[in-house]
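fold-stage: in
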Amino acid sequence: MISATEMRIIDRNAQHFGVPILDLMENAGKAVADAARQDFAAAGKKVLVVCGTGNNGGDGFVAARLLAGDAHVTVLLARSPDQISTQEARTNFARLKTVRVIEGLDRSEGAMAEADLIIDALLGIGASGELREPYATLIREMNASGKPVLSVDVPSGLGAVPVAKPSATVSMFDAKEGMTPANSGTIRIADIGIPAQVARTIGPGEFLLFPRPRAESHKGENGSLLIVSGGPFTGAPALVAMGALGMGADLVHIATPALAAQVVASYSPNFIVHPLVGHRLLREDTELILELAAKADAMAIGPGLGDSPGTLESIRAILKAVDKPTVFDADAIRAVGQDTTVLAKKKAVATPHAREFTALTGKTLPDTLEEKTKMVQDAAKALGITILLKGHVDIVSDGTRTKLNHTGNAGMTVGGTGDVLCGAVGGLLCKGVAPFDAARLAAFSNGYAGDLAFKVKSYGLTATDVADNLGRVLAEFVD
């Protein structure tokens, strides 16, 4: 079973990866026509296909065309043809050359009374609230007709009022969240030609998860991230911050040891730097960090902190005490690997490379992608977190859902790109994106930004080049 949002993501990704929407629509319509013949003996009968003006209606147009060879088919179009909203649906409407078409509510009730079977292709996934006209009336008339109803993908209005009450539903790719035999009738799952590889690959569709700021929002409302980073390594906190800002965080607060604070602040006036006590993260810093975390929406911790025993102990204490969504990387992964109980009940994302995955789990990754994927999924489930395993192909899993990311290039082996990725995850977490969604969206964005940088800098690209291109990724894919 799949959510409406996830289905829209897969549809968009399928188009991006070269699967034509017209092909998907043709396959969907064929599945509906087949169900009408097999389950309702539609051949020779009067079939009324009630179509909306979106792609659900487009599926209905295909079904109508395919049924017209052996049934008496009429299409009832909810609105005028000039309101059909997608090119694919318009193309399939134009192919209804021999099918009778009527429009609106004037003759709808009579057409339903004459029909032997009604195909419901009014509304697809994502309906909510009170439906507008003419959809509300058409759904009520279908329900009152006493005729068998076959719904396309979901019963029209599912999740809204009113909702169609079909005898059966042909659901595309997978059943949708909320569907049951009680509200959908007999549920048929139709394979409409989305390859399994596409369904599990991260793509531009993931940007449907990106939270667009309200026009009237003000500073801080779109995410405040606390970054606990640096000390022995002064560049890491800046790169994490650049990654977060590149993904649209409003504010980045950097808690870093006093030795690094001035250097980190010098990188950018956009950073709010809070010096800690000493030259490394110490247990004495915990109180200040907890105060800062209380005012933040999420936390990123680990890069550049170093692996001294006192620092690792401090990291664990901070992770245990902070109750905000957290991304942890680098030295924080080593710290957690020594005591994973600090992750109990945490909304957390780990971003390890292969060696850090071993430090976190005690397991060495196998060679094949399928075996790696299974190991990452099992580890994520056991730890109760999301893992974003960095590699030639990134693997993102929360233990239940798993997706693969193919953006990025060999030039990104340069130091610091992982810090930018950590910041990108943190930037999304602080904007309210759920851990699994933040991880997959950040993985694609970081890799795609690296690909944009590679076009200009080739193997001479740097981590700052990647960070600088994150905004361009958003400009390309956020509607």
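fold-stage: in (second)
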Amino acid sequence: SGAMSLLGRFISADEENLTAEGRIGPDTMFLTEGAVGAGVGVEYMAQAVAAHAGYAATQRGEPVRVGFLLGTRRYACAVPAFALGSVLTIHVHRALQGENGLGAFDCRIEDSVSGQELATATITVFQPENVEEFLQRSSE
């Protein structure tokens, strides 16, 4: 929420996919010397995955639950940073969803103006059925 929320608007969503937009403005979190470092692309992707989970839960009439980013595979970025003024389109596609709460999403970030692919990765997530129980067991 607040400044940590990097996504500005949602363009489309369905059972397997979500497309969102993020603008790099002067108040964007992680902005340094007129740009947001390329590594922050993982956060844009993770927030789009979380938005997809929220969308899917809402469509099923269920409450939105907490999830965890487990890892990123094959993150590749064609630019060293996302420049101030850039408009990014973030696409996520659910590639795998286990009944145990594990999921994998193929993600990409494009420049909204040129359509150039800027970054790609596979994001692995975990959404436990009961967050409190999971956290309790994890701390033991």
